[in-house]
Design goal:
Helices cover 41% and strands 23% of the residues. It is built from six helices and nine strands; from the N terminus they run H-E-E-E-E-H-E-E-H-E-H-H-E-H-E. It starts with a helix and ends with a strand.
Length: 174
């Protein structure tokens, strides 16, 4: 049993992101690596999927900090609809991300949060740090409405009616 737990933790502690953006024809395309050139989108939607708990929190924070440091990026929307097993350590990690982003003139918005995520956010003090105005709950009758509302909030923050948007999602393992 301990070996299987160790293998699970090793696998779960390495979340990988894949960049998905629109090409000139309006189709979604995947990139092999996350872009590093200056044409960075101003809004990034990061789909956080699978288990996100203490074993993956530091790597997650490192990846998000790298994203925050890009000069053109203004807003990160963390889409948590398919995130599981969030614990207090992850909430504190996201809190560190919010504070780091704001200290760099960026902001973080959460969308698709289930009730258990909201409970963890409230109990850890993260919801207060994030702000109710930057927290959008999951709606089972329309699963994408929270992300739509998060994008509207991003427009309020940036003061822009349009923005370049890039979607980051976990790479599917084969």
């Amino acid at each position: 049993m301990p070996a299987s737990i160790g293998l699970f933790l090793a696998k779960a502690s390495r979340p990988e992101l894949k960049e998905i953006s629109f090409n000139d024809g309006g189709e979604l395309i995947e990139h092999d690596t996350i872009k590093t050139h200056e044409e960075r989108p101003s809004i990034a939607i990061v789909h956080v999927e699978g288990d996100l708990f203490f074993a993956s929190s530091e790597l997650f924070l490192d990846q998000m900090r790298n994203m925050v440091e890009h000069p053109a990026l203004r807003i990160i929307i963390l889409r948590l609809r398919n995130a599981h097993n969030l614990d207090a350590s992850v909430a504190l990690t996201i809190k560190d991300l919010v504070l780091f982003a704001r200290s760099n003139g960026r902001d973080v918005i959460v969308s698709g949060a289930h009730s258990y995520v909201e409970r963890v956010f409230k109990n850890s003090g993260l919801l207060e740090t994030l702000g109710e105005e930057n927290f959008f709950r999951y709606h089972p009758e329309n699963p994408n409405i929270s992300t739509r509302d998060a994008l509207k909030r991003a427009q309020e923050i940036t003061g822009e009616t349009s923005a370049d948007i890039t979607i980051y999602a976990s790479e599917k393992k084969k």
